Amino acid sequence: MELLFPEGPNGACHPLNVRGFSLERPECATLYQGRGELWDGWEYSVRQLARLAAEGWNCTSVQECALNELFINLGSLTTPGFWGYRQPPVQHDHWRVRFWEGLALRARRAHRRQLKGAYAEHAAAFKEAEAVKEPRPSPSQVTLGVHADPKSAAGPWKGQLEVWKAYASVHGLRWHSDDIPYFDGTLFAKFFGLYWASTDAAHAGFEKQFQYLIPMPGRMEIPTASFVIASARSAALREGLVVFTQPPKYWDSLEALHAVLPLNSWTIWIDYDFTMSPCCFEEFSLRDLIQPDGDGHLPHVIVRDSPREDYHHHCANAGFFIIRNSPIGRLFVDLAQQKRQWPGLPYGYQAALAESLLELLGMERGFRAKGASGAPAYASTCLPLMATAGPMGHMSYANFCQCYRKELKRLAGPEGARTSRWVHFVSPGFEAAGPEPGMLLASLFIYRGSGRGIGVLPLTTWSRDQHRAYMDAWIPPDADLGGPCAFMPLMIHWASVPFRPRLIYEFLNARFPKDLPMHVLVNGTAQELARAYRSAGLWGNSVWRNFVEQPRAQKLLESWGHNTSAPPRSGCNFGTTRMWKTGGFARNGRSTQPYDPR
């Protein structure tokens, strides 16, 4: 079996064999020569990669461990003897796996020390949280906040922001629209599909100290030197460098949340690609999701749970959180914000929030078991899969999310029966849980259940009309099925779906052409949109009520899992689980099985 690098006797020639590497063995030169032409001084590159591996084996923080793993991956590409791109590809390299396991263990230990320190620091606040019972907040004690970059806020997404402003006004919530560009560092390179930048303005130009961080003139994608000469031990490097998988401005939403949270008792924080159903616009306030548990305690974090219907690599949905301005609520945001300098986090701050949620649940479980003398019950088990790629150097958010779901069940119980007092999980599709805040539209594409779904999200191969027809098959507006309110959930999250926001506006306009004309959806003021949404909701709900009174509706309602003796007034509590139960429709040229040959 071929490995990423020549192995030699007892792995002596393999640079990732931290404890046994010895390139001086006579067999090594022959083995490396067998993999391609060598150049004078080739040994230097191999030894530098081995040095990097030895440093990684003794890393002392998550950031240092993660940077080392990144440098190993990138440095390998220019190291003689590397077969990472060989066909068929190398499937397993036990020296590479052993190195990663050692590095991952050190990352976990380092972070566990930090979590223990945070636990001890907040032990008094944890005790108070267990004792204090507070009433539900008044509307004015709840902020509804959205962050959008200035270009989006003043451009195509303006209508969406105005809708949420209108919603906040209708329900008496405090509105906060944030368009501050928090990131003030400098993006200096785009090596290997990543965004390399200085941490902030104070560190601008720091990269000039490191040759491997300097791009070729006019080529931001190509470094001037190999990463084998890098070292994550440099304090200047760790202080000055951030590496993102998305443009740096994407982290601004988390920074904005951190800034707004102390300004009110509660903050509802949403992405601007959420839509509110006009059928629920006036009937339901998001404040109603803030409910005490059976003992009268209010949670500190409220988040939509992650049902199995969400596509396989989905964890906590960072697009919707309700966070209490309490020491525990602020701790949760702090834990996520501290991960900003962990390089290459998949999906950016969404991964940071998912891992931080496990950390918070671990602290709660530890405190409820042993009080101030306890320790976090979460041992950063999933952290390496998010921060240090994987055993073979390949990042897989799906693997992290599988670990996340397993740990979530261990720490807080199964879906639909979570036991956390600090974190309330709104369970999609469970009647007792009420409306679902943010059905993830991408799941209707990617997840395949009972023959439905596509298995992929066609970002470039489908036209806008094809996307709209597929959504109409899942969320049909047809009058003989109950009209536009029948299937439209309380909130839809349009994350990752192409053709936004135009597709959003067309989706709404097609269902309420009279009340929601395109010019109002795109350019209307908050006052105009409030009137339009109210009118659309009145009409849509009247169509629904007329439908459920008809005898032919009973059988259909039963197939949806509705109680026919007390049918719902609208689709406001129509969640993901019920969406999959109905299976969508194949009618009028629309289908949830568009590739089905039948």
Task: Give an overview of the whole structure.
The longest helix is centred in the N-terminal third of the chain and has 28 residues, at about 95-120. The mean pLDDT is about 90. Helices cover about 40% and strands about 10% of the residues. With about 600 residues, it is of the alpha/beta class. Helix 7 (about 160-170) packs across helix 18 (about 525-550) and helix 11 (about 350-370) packs parallel to helix 13. The strands form four sheets. A six-stranded mixed β-sheet has the order 2-1-8-11-10-12, sandwiched between helices. The chain contains 20 helices and 14 strands.
Short account of what is shown:
A hairpin with a 5-residue loop joins strand 3 and strand 4. The chain has 598 residues and is α/β, with parallel strands linked by helices.
Features:
single chain; 598 residues; alpha/beta; 6-stranded mixed β-sheet; 14 strands; 39% helix; 10% strand
Separation of the first and last Cα atoms: 44 Å
Largest sheet: 6 strands, mixed
Count of discrete alpha- or pi-helical segments spanning 4 or more residues: 20
Question: Spatial order of the strands in the main sheet?
Answer: 2-1-8-11-10-12
Poorly predicted regions are: none
Cα radius of gyration in angstroms: 26 Å
Strand content: 5-15%
What general form does the structure show?
globular
Rounded mean pLDDT is 91
Structural classification:
alpha/beta
- What percent of the residues sit in helical stretches (DSSP H or I)? 25-40%
Strand tally:
14
